[in-house]
Amino acid sequence: MSGRGKPGGGLVRTHKPEDVQVTLNLRISSSPQHIPLQSPEGEIESTRQTAYPRFDIRIHASVKSSSHSNLPVTLATWRTPLERPLHEDETPSSSPVWINSALTPFRSTSDPSRCAGPPELGYIVHRRGGYPRNLRESWDFVTVPSAESGQEVVISHHLPLERLRFWSTNSDTDTQFIRPEKGERFRISPSEGSLGTFWWRWGDLDEDLAGKKFCNDEWFEGSIHESQHGEECLESEGENGFGLVMEVENETEVEFI
Predict the structure, then answer these.
(1) What's the rounded Cα separation, in Å, for the pair 103 and 84?
(2) pTM for this structure?
(3) pLDDT digits (tens, 9 = 90+) for 31-60
(4) C-alpha span between 162 and 80 (Å, rounded)
(5) Neighbours of 242 (CB within 10 A)
(6) 248 — phi, psi (to 5°)?
(7) Which residues lie below 8 Å from residue 75, measured CB to CB, with a gap of 6+?
């Protein structure tokens, strides 16, 4: 089982079973699951109404197990599968708008060396604000409903298919660009190193945690940033996000037809 370490290192944390307080269950889905190609060129088919069909990747999260099954869980989403899409005003002009650093290149189910994805897939982009003392000033957080509720939270990503590229990792030197084949399927999944968080706490963003400051003083210990918050600033329930793990129940596949 794994979590996350300090942001600067992004280390995966290893947990003993008795240290885990909450386990999140993740499901990956996509729509549509079949994307038409023009034959014989192997390019994505366009229509008169829109240049490319809309393609969405959805991350479903629910609480699988918890030491407090009646409580929701709020967590920082940066560099996790639950990170929401960036908007144009949140990233430098040189950076792409569509991005989720937790997703790995899509792999062909028939030949894992054949990959697909937008050029920026897997890049880590820092939102404006870096590491503020109050993490809510620039970090995103999401609340996952309690285990007893049986509900889930869904994060949707629209991937512009005009940015989709196909390549092979077989080449020892330069990237070899390829074309998808009819009937070829590509699997979409998160990286193992993204299955955790840097900060989490029991509660709901819009209810008992509304208006509260979130902090992690350990990141600034012994530095010029060190200061006292008092009771108004809430630390992570587990140090550096320790105690929360994520498990992937199922991934998704898309087929080019």
Answers:
(1) 12
(2) 0.81
(3) 988 888 754 444 455 443 445 667 888 999
(4) 25
(5) 22
(6) -95, 115
(7) 82, 141, 142, 144, 197, 199, 200, 201, 241, 244
